[in-house]
Design brief:
Layout lengths: L8 E6 L7 H14 L5 E6 L1 H4 L6 H18 L6 E5 L5 H10 L4 H5 L2 H7 L8 H15 L5 E3 L5 H17 L9 E3 L34 H9 L19 H13 L4 H8 L4 H27 L2 H30 L4
Parallel strand pairs: 1-2, 2-3, 4-5
Helix pairs in contact: 3-12, 4-7, 4-13, 7-8, 9-12, 10-11, 10-12
Bound molecules: tryptophan.
The site of tryptophan has 13 residues, from strand 1 and helix 7.
């Protein structure tokens, strides 16, 4: 049987659990903007239902949902070119998520490394939602028959699980209905590290604000954080191999490369042999140049939350138009009487 041709379609999402960081921007949003307006239909989501897998106060959830939407918009996601919405407005996500809970196997979930890391010793006491989360993520993606998902390395396993769910569904019901989604993982800074400890991921919840760049930081703060970031006593090497044992230095070079749309090698061909006194101010200036306009625009957008809400509501209508027929077909395939 011929495989159905699926529309080239991108889906990706960011969780509104705390503010946006440079990691979200370089690892996700900047790449999302790059995929917009080309060969793909692009759908970008604020995955609010994923955020509540760990406790969020209602005020925090509301604020963070709008802030993530503002970040998307300020960085260049255009609601006329992409579908931008928050997940909870399209109830089909939750419905397909439940159906997939009945397709995915407990053994598959037990292998999810992110769950093991997040739950840690506390596994008996985390929410059931945190455990089932990858099955909802599969629903997010397959609800739109998305063919490509730009994500960071840490989400690769979840996209593989999405493929496993699609394949098992297709196999069990003898259909060729869900596509095999491909993760798109690329770029020098897909994993942006902590500015104080280059072995840890830059996170929105780390204790010191100096270890991360928030997308709402103003120019002075961005500049100060890079200038005070942790480094080592050596000069920069000529090639990336020379950074393999220097996590802080490697991180700063990767950030520079991602901001400048170039490679680490190209950055080192310019700065190899130079010390931090030269590199850090150059990085700080580049970062201010690229990020300060985004933070200014985010502030402007956040001053009018009703406008952000209108944009997300319109996006949700468009998302729903794609999602509803796919959900309806899934119900029919499974034998629900409707
Ligand atoms: N799990 C992703 C993260 O933590 C967020 C996410 C939820 C997502 N649903 C998605 C990403 C669908 C891509 C596609 O970063």
């Amino acid at each position: 049987m011929d495989k159905p041709a699926f529309t080239p379609r991108v889906f990706s999402g960011i969780k509104p659990s705390g503010g946006l960081t440079l990691g979200n921007y370089l690892g996700a949003i900047k790449r999302f903007v790059g995929m917009q307006g080309g060969e793909f239909e692009t759908i970008y989501c604020v995955v609010d239902m994923h955020a509540i897998t760990v406790w969020q106060s209602p005020e925090d959830l509301r604020h963070a949902t709008r802030e993530v939407a503002a970040g998307y918009l300020a960085a260049g996601i255009d609601p006329d070119k992409s579908i931008l919405f928050n997940q909870s407005r399209v109830s089909a996500h939750a419905e397909l998520g439940w159906l997939f809970n009945c397709v995915a196997r407990v053994g598959w979930m037990n292998r999810m490394t992110q769950f093991k890391d997040k739950a840690g010793k506390n596994a008996e006491n985390v929410s059931l939602g945190l455990y089932a989360y990858p099955s909802l993520m599969a629903a997010d993606i397959l609800l739109y028959h998305a063919t490509h998902v730009p994500v960071g390395e840490d989400q690769k396993q979840h996209v593989e699980l999405t493929r496993d769910i699609a394949n098992k569904f297709n196999h069990d019901y003898k259909v060729d209905f869900f596509p095999e989604t491909v993760p798109v993982i690329e770029g020098p800074a897909m994993r942006v590290m902590n500015l104080r400890d280059g072995t840890k991921k830059m996170s929105k919840s780390g204790e010191s604000d100096m270890e991360r760049i928030n997308m709402t930081d103003d120019a002075d703060t961005i500049s100060k954080k890079f200038k005070k970031s942790r480094t080592d006593p050596d000069v920069l090497p000529e090639t990336m191999d020379g950074l393999s044992e220097r996590p802080e230095a490697r991180n700063l070079v990767n950030i520079y490369a991602a901001l400048a749309d170039t490679t680490g090698e190209a950055v080192l061909s310019e700065f190899g042999g130079e010390g931090w006194g030269k590199f850090k101010p150059a990085l700080a200036d580049l970062a201010v140049d690229k990020l300060a306009p985004i933070s200014t625009e985010m502030k402007r957008l956040m001053a009018d939350p009703a406008e952000i809400d209108r944009i997300m509501a319109k996006g949700a209508e468009k998302a729903n138009e794609i999602a509803q027929p796919i959900l309806a077909k899934t119900f029919d395939i499974m034998g629900f009487v409707r």
